[in-house]
Amino acid sequence: MKKGLTLLIAVLTVMVANDAGAKKTTYVATNHRFNYVKRDEVSHKLAAERQMNHPADVDEAKLREALASIRIAKKSFGEEDAKTHEAFGESAINFLAVNLSKAFREAASNEEIVFSYLDKDPIFIIRNDRLTIGTVWIHGNELHVQFQKLWAKMTIDTDRRGNERKAASMARGMRIAFDPAPNQKLGLDDAKELIIDLSAQVNVAAEPAEKTTEIAVKGTPTHAPDAKERLQKLEALKKEGLITDKEYAEKRKEILQGL
């Protein structure tokens, strides 16, 4: 009896210790798949090292401007890439700005904000699902954005329910370099961390996209590329590892059949 009571006490002690050591997570917004904003508890030591001043009242408009100003250097894509190089598209900014603003207002002094967003940007008819995951916090007037994954290519079907964790873990990241604006700087110890001075926001004009492959739902292309252009673009995508050999072969066959 005494031995059993001792064992029970030991088990309860371990359970309480585990509960005390568990990190608290609070979701601010989620689609229960790849898009979410959440508050994650961190150690008081890390919070002190970062000098996080949470909760923080960060204007949604400033967050929109900050996210829109994050640009990726052209060299990350290759010289032939014709797209603009914003890190976040309009749909991502619409989702993140309002929820990050809310998360900062609600965050405790030892909570960081973690976000995730899946961007679906098909190339021709080929799927090109990209996942971005990052951590943000406020220090003074600075927004710190630390990316765990940025435009990571999803190699598993993202429409299939139940495989979100596996798909996210297998997403392949690109070797990306930032193109800092005047009010931005890179983290001292982490090249994937960008620090944005919110008190010196600079409107960064979006680089105009070349609409060579963009087709309206009820219209015709503004400029339909010829077969040579399409094959060159397809070859570049394959070299950069943005499409698989199977996708390359299928699309090349389709282009040649249209001649």
Structure, described:
By secondary structure, the chain is of the alpha+beta class. The protein has two domains: 24-209, no CATH class; 211-259, no CATH class. 34% of the residues lie in helices and 20% in strands. It contains seven helices and seven strands. The protein has helices at 2-21, 44-50, 60-69, 90-106, 164-170, 227-239, 245-257, and strands at 25-30, 36-41, 111-120, 129-139, 142-153, 184-186, 193-197. A seven-stranded antiparallel β-sheet has the order 1-2-3-4-5-7-6, covered by helices on one side. Strand 6 (184-186) and strand 7 form a beta hairpin. Helix 3 (60-69) crosses helix 4 (90-106). It starts with a helix and ends with a helix. 24% of the residues are buried.
Strand content: 15-25%
Strand order of the largest sheet: 1-2-3-4-5-7-6
In total, the number of strands is 7
Topology pattern, helix = H, strand = E: HEEHHHEEEHEEHH
Straight-line N-to-C gap: 86 Å
Large-scale geometry: elongated
Spell out the blueprint of helices and strands.
Blueprint: H1 2-21, E1 25-30, E2 36-41, H2 44-50, H3 60-69, H4 90-106, E3 111-120, E4 129-139, E5 142-153, H5 164-170, E6 184-186, E7 193-197, H6 227-239, H7 245-257
Antiparallel strand pairs: 1-2, 2-3, 3-4, 4-5, 5-7, 6-7
Helix pairs in contact: 3-4, 6-7
